[in-house]
Fold this sequence. Notes:
The complex is a heterodimer.
Chain A: H1 3-27, H2 63-84, H3 100-105, H4 146-149, H5 177-182, H6 196-202, H7 229-236, H8 239-242, H9 247-251, H10 261-264, H11 275-278, H12 282-288, H13 307-313, H14 322-327, H15 357-360, H16 368-372, H17 374-377, H18 383-388, H19 392-401, H20 413-417, E1 420-423, E2 426-429, H21 454-461, H22 464-468, H23 481-491
Chain B: H1 2-21, H2 31-60, H3 70-73, H4 79-93, E1 98-102, H5 116-127, E2 133-139, E3 142-152, H6 156-164, E4 178-187
Antiparallel strand pairs in B: 1-4, 2-3, 3-4
Helix pairs in contact in B: 1-2, 2-4
Amino acid sequence: MSRKAWIWVLWAAATIGACWMLAAWMLVAGDRRPFLIGETTDAHHQFEIACETCHAAPAFADAAKAEKALNKACRTCHDKELRAADDSHSTKRFRSPRMAAFREKLDARFCTSCHVEHRPEITRASAVSVAMDFCVACHSEGEQDVRKNRPSHAGLGFDTCASSGCHNYHDNRALYEDFLVKHAHAEWLALSPAHALAARQRSRAPAPAPEAALGRDDAAAPTAALGSAATVDDWAGSGHAAAGVNCAACHAPGAPGNASLSGIEPHWTDHPGTAACEDCHRPQARTFVLGRHGMRRHPRIAKPRDPAKELEALGLGDWLPEGLLAALEDPSPPARMAVHEARLPMRAEAAHRLLDCGSCHRPHAVDTAFAAVEACTSCHDDRHTRAYVGSPHHQLWLAELAGEAKPGTGVSCATCHMAKFKRRGLVVTNHNQNDILRPSEKMIRPVCLDCHGLRFALDALADPDLVERNFDGPPTVKVKSIDWAVRRAAAGEPEAGK
Amino acid sequence: MTNRLRKAAAIALGVALATSTAGAAEGGIPYRKAADMLHLVMSAARTVYARMVVQRLTVDEEVITASEHFDDDLALPLPAQMFRFTAEAVSDSSEELSYSLLSLNPINKKNGPGTDAEQQGLEHVADDPDENFYAEEELGGQRYFTAVYADVAVAEACVNCHNYHKDSPRSDFEVGDVMGAVVIRIPMDE
Lengths: 498, 190
């Protein structure tokens, strides 16, 4: 064979080999981040390494199946919040055959019609990638023409529907017309402003079991692990000690309940994981994994691929030798979010921190007041956070901590970002700090309205500069929706001919 | 009433099984008959909810109200809302059947006629409530058997709500009037 022919053979072999390697990398195992076609959105970037979390269809599935699986994956994590939001445009409403004509304009059966991943150049807040005037698809013609039914809307651009504080696509619980009318005349500030659930939680009487309470002399831990006196004092002053929760409950979870010190030692760990917290604080743990602080622990994030199983699925059986299989490995997403990975401005000195329960709750003191403010400000370094210190809300918080104001009157970071809810008669703090931020009008009902009137709350949240300044004065933006709703209600009828 | 409920449930189950496994072309229940039987069940369920739950608790016993904003008002869902919720629940489980409550004078504009068959059907049953309307139509590339049944105001509560709602385009309904129609669609075999 001539030299030229050899070169061709070598070139062909190298090409085929490279293709096989790329295919194996993509379909069997390996770090696939080089294949990312564009930056993922905020939050999703935390698990972008686990492609199958979203791309759940098998390899080589047809486009329809792949899209269906992709959208099902969205619902896996977001379904509960959409149901809680009484979704104004739920996908099920668009399944009806009579919606076929609308689906041709905007197929609202699929999340991906409006939320396309890996397209940062067209993606806005809340991972919305559809054009801002998307409402025009269904509400600009025939009987659905909003301008026909609402003369007040004549001349308004469709790009302003969801950007003026008037409408949201999914969650309109604080924006629907009758609600606006009902709350139209509320003063900007209630006569006795206080967050009802926070007041109930913070004014709760101590647990009625003083015989179970433990003191610093009761701390049961191996001497070498007992730590400093300050650590023991922190624990002795905590709710854990008051409730009779001794060191072993977290540091030696495998030890029998009434084990002696010698029984505890074999099970002792200096650094218990978050599982120790989750055992007792389940509602908090369940919501923690839904937010950006804890989502790396979400149980539905895809596990690393098993190369042997992937080959089996591709019909290649045990084609690869054991040694090569062992060399192939999918990287796992880190178990915890690191501060330096955040896309919001963060303090440089906090960059190394990893997020788990102990990041905000100092593990021995479990001081919720610290967790509600200082824990946040020790990492976050954006204008809104910095402006909180000294703001009217902060002054109220300090007054409550000092005992100069009633429980529930203080406004901490957690008051607004981690709304409390009732569960089986108990007040629980939502540890998904993003739950009422997408969009911010979700905050109105569970938080703002306890102290403020709806009109003031709508205006304040629609004023981006005021939000940045952490509400240090009155809003300068005026949302018109309440006036328009009141006018319609006063007329008692449709604006357009009855 | 209990026997009627049992009978209605048995019919619903039978119809669901029959229509899911065999179309008219294969010797199953004809589309028209299937739609008629489904409507019978829907109508019975709606009447039972209206009378035994809403009427009894809101009017007779006065222990709770019924409200469009039932979540906020801690009230019962209106019968029409209940009907829509069950239709949405069915759509969660199957694409073999869809149904809706529509009107020529809808409070919510999205519940007005949206296809030619709906327009014709609504006008047809408004003129003659005893005469159902049947048609075939193609939507989104699929052929459907569409049946339209008159929806008549059976109580003062229905009439009052529609006459006094600010979004209602008509305010002179009387008990016994046709207020709208139930539209049932069954996908047809190719």
